């Protein structure tokens, strides 16, 4: 009897499938890291791009003083990648970061080679509608002062409108998510007026606003307000009723329920609304800067387009791409830090 009980409670022997899984994990751990291989390929690709820029002469249509400087920049990038790949052999964190980015580095070098061959080296894509990469570098350097001021102006305008829209959107979403009476009056108006593009209000806003800057801020705030309000309300409404019941049993008042239960529970939805609002605000920013706001990247792009200065316009567009992408990445990093407890549960 005792023997039967011991046999029943003894752990089952490892199956053949478990042995195969462990063997695969051991082989993966013992395998040499792929980073050195990717690092060598990436550095080599950027060296090829640098040699192409420096050794092959430009066609007569693309004589740019920045060709040498551009080739040196590409060589520096290749050196940085090679050093980072070497350092990654001693750092697990660096190796993990590079393993995801080096394929993109190779793709970037290939794109530079194709771009360079089709413009400056062959003249197949001719000016004025097409520009070589060193032309963008040249124009950005020549207009560095006005581009820096335009970037700062766009950042101030976007940050002001985004923060106002975010704060008002969270307040409105919590109000209509918590109060049935407020939801009765506000929610229908939100559904009908919110989807209207903010730029459709331009004729009214810039006539009614005291200054063009305040009008542009209002348009950006309106763009952010709608998705933040809608998703904040959804987050508050979807909070489990059991959370409120437990808190009220322990003596929590209405203020505690709103600030310590509703808002934290709605944070994932709030960040989703902020992400959507920030992406939509970029288009509103570009349009708003062309109506009475004599500064900003959108204004600069429209100004250069009016003079058919396409290389300078492309340079500003590239700066705007980096500007918008950097802000979105910063928002995602903030979301990951604030919602550490949700790690591996949701993904953007």
TrEMBL record:
It comes from Tsukamurella asaccharolytica. The chain crosses the membrane at residues 35-56, 68-89, 101-118, 155-178, 190-207, 213-231, 265-288, 308-332. Its main location: membrane. Keywords: Cell membrane, Membrane, Transmembrane, Transmembrane helix, Transport. This is ABC transporter permease subunit. The lineage of its organism: Bacteria, Bacillati, Actinomycetota, Actinomycetes, Mycobacteriales. GO terms for biological process: transmembrane transport. Residues 151-331 form the ABC transmembrane type-1 domain. GO terms for cellular component: plasma membrane. The keyword Membrane applies. It is found in: Cell membrane. Belongs to the binding-protein-dependent transport system permease family. It is a multi-pass membrane protein. Pfam families: BPD_transp_1 (PF00528). The keyword Transport applies.
């Amino acid at each position: 009897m005792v023997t039967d009980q011991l046999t029943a409670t003894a752990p089952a022997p490892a199956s053949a499938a478990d042995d195969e899984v462990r063997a695969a994990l051991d082989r993966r751990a013992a395998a040499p890291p792929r980073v050195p291989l990717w690092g060598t390929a990436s550095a080599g690709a950027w060296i090829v791009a640098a040699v192409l820029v420096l050794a092959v002469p430009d066609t007569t249509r693309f004589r740019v003083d920045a060709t040498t400087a551009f080739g040196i920049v590409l060589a520096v990038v290749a050196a940085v990648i090679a050093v980072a790949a070497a350092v990654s052999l001693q750092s697990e964190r660096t190796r993990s970061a590079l393993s995801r980015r080096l394929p993109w580095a190779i793709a970037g070098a290939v794109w530079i080679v194709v771009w360079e061959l089709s413009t400056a080296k062959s003249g197949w894509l001719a000016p004025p509608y097409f520009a070589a990469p060193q032309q963008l570098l040249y124009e950005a350097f020549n207009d560095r002062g006005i581009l820096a001021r335009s970037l700062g102006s766009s950042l101030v305008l976007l940050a002001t409108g985004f923060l106002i829209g975010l704060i008002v959107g969270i307040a409105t979403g919590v109000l209509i998510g918590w109060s049935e009476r407020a939801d009765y009056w506000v929610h229908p108006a939100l559904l009908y007026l919110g989807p209207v593009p903010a730029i459709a209000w331009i004729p009214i806003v810039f006539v009614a606003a005291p200054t063009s800057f305040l009008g542009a801020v209002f348009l950006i705030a309106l763009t952010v307000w709608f998705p933040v309000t809608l998703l904040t309300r959804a987050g508050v409404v979807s909070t489990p009723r059991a959370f409120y019941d437990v808190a009220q049993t322990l003596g929590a008042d209405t203020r505690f329920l709103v600030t310590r239960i509703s808002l934290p529970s709605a944070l994932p939805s709030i960040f989703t609304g902020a992400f959507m609002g920030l992406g939509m605000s970029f288009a509103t920013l570009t349009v708003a800067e062309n109506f009475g706001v004599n500064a900003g990247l959108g204004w600069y792009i429209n100004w250069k387009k009016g003079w058919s200065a396409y290389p300078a316009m492309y340079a500003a567009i590239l700066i705007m791409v980096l500007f918008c992408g950097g802000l979105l990445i910063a928002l995602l990093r903030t979301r990951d830090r604030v919602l550490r407890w949700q790690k591996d549960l949701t993904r953007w």
